[in-house]
Design goal:
alpha/beta; six-stranded mixed sheet; five-stranded mixed sheet; 15 strands; about 30% strand
């Protein structure tokens, strides 16, 4: 197996197009064409993790956090990022990161958090826009089903939990083939009227090349007429955070103790209890203070995330309970998510989970 096959499996689950503009997800060190000896899964690609990869015979480290986040002007070992770069390159170890793209997919990092709490009826807290496109094409009526099926197989036609969604309108198309043409119907040099179906489907932008290829390969015409337009619709399957429901409402302090237990954190920083039950819970892995207002407006009783600053706790304003469980603690189950993605795709392949706890924060 080659590294590019591992990358393709991860990016089929969490496309790079879903990462935030500031991010640096993807293959950071190494060659996608290398054969894989084994894969080491981790939250952070630290020096200790690279040492572990060397010791365990792994030439690919898959991490959540990109070890190189901003540009490197020099690589001389003066800090841990440069030392990781030197050691990884010296030992032919590739380093790959799936960061905010893995955060933003519906079944990604936040879903791992939600599963630990038993949340149901989960939905994306802040869906992203600008990630959807619509294809319009015109097909002879007798071939419409063949083209529809090809587009669906390429990933088009998904709206929420519904698949194979399309709009179809019957009409009449005209064309006249020029010199050297071999029209599917009609004769060159003569205007032809053909009963056609106008077919419309939505697809995520990262699938555009695949959808167009499916259209062109399944359509019977020599020259295929089609339009692709961008949509501003919110994509309900991609975005920041999740919100869901506990199986049963809990007292606030009971809930906070439950959170501490389920995430195994040494400390939960929280805002004053409101004297109300907790039923609806919003959450976001990593630094999620930017979603607090969204959680409040969505009607959440509690919001679980990390990296809140002192003054940001005041923003709860007795409308919600903030539970800051720590950055590492909120994302620690990402390793399990990587493991699930790869073992589902490659049934006879066993990636290794790092035994290094990379959390730089300790509690007394």
């Amino acid at each position: 197996m080659k590294i590019k096959e591992i990358i393709q499996a991860i990016e089929a689950f969490a496309p790079l197009q879903y990462q935030e503009s500031y991010d640096n997800a993807g293959l950071i060190f190494g060659d996608a064409g290398w054969e894989v000896t084994n894969v080491l899964l981790t939250l952070d690609a630290t020096e200790a993790v690279i040492d572990e990869a060397i010791a365990r015979g792994c030439n690919l480290v898959v991490a959540h956090h990109p070890i190189v986040f901003s540009g490197l002007k020099k690589i001389n070992g003066r800090n841990y990022v440069e030392r990781v770069a030197i050691k990884a390159i010296k030992h032919d170890i590739a380093v790959y990161a799936a960061h905010t793209n893995l955060d933003n997919v519906r079944n990604g990092v936040c879903a791992e958090m939600a599963s630990r709490l038993g949340l149901g009826q989960c939905r994306v807290l802040q869906p992203k826009t600008g990630l959807l496109k619509k294809l319009y094409t015109f097909v002879p009526q007798v071939d419409a089903e063949k083209v529809r099926a090809a587009l669906f197989a390429a990933g088009a036609g998904h709206i929420g939990n519904y698949s194979e969604c399309s709009f179809n309108a019957e009409g009449s198309g005209t064309f006249k083939g020029g010199e050297g043409t071999e029209p599917y119907v009609g004769q060159p040099g003569q205007r032809h009227f053909e009963p056609e179906t106008k077919l419309e489907v939505i697809f995520p932008l990262y699938l555009e090349s695949r959808v167009v290829e499916a259209l062109l390969s399944s359509h019977p015409y020599e020259e295929v007429a089609y339009d692709i337009v961008g949509l501003d619709n919110a994509y309900q399957q991609v975005g920041s955070g999740l919100i869901g429901e506990l199986p049963e409402a809990m007292d606030e302090m009971q809930f906070l103790q439950y959170v501490k237990q389920q995430f195994g954190t040494g400390c939960v920083r929280y805002t004053p209890p409101r004297g109300k039950k907790v039923k609806t819970v919003a959450l976001c892995g990593g630094a999620g203070s930017f979603l607090l207002k969204r959680a409040i407006s969505a009607g959440a009783d509690a919001y679980i995330s990390a990296d809140f600053k002192y003054h940001e706790f005041f923003d709860a304003d007795n409308q919600i309970i903030i539970a800051d469980i720590g950055h590492f603690e909120s994302e620690q189950f990402t390793v399990e998510l990587f493991y699930h993605i790869l073992t589902e795709k490659f049934r006879n392949f066993a990636p290794l989970k790092s035994v290094i706890k990379t959390n730089p924060v300790n509690y007394l």
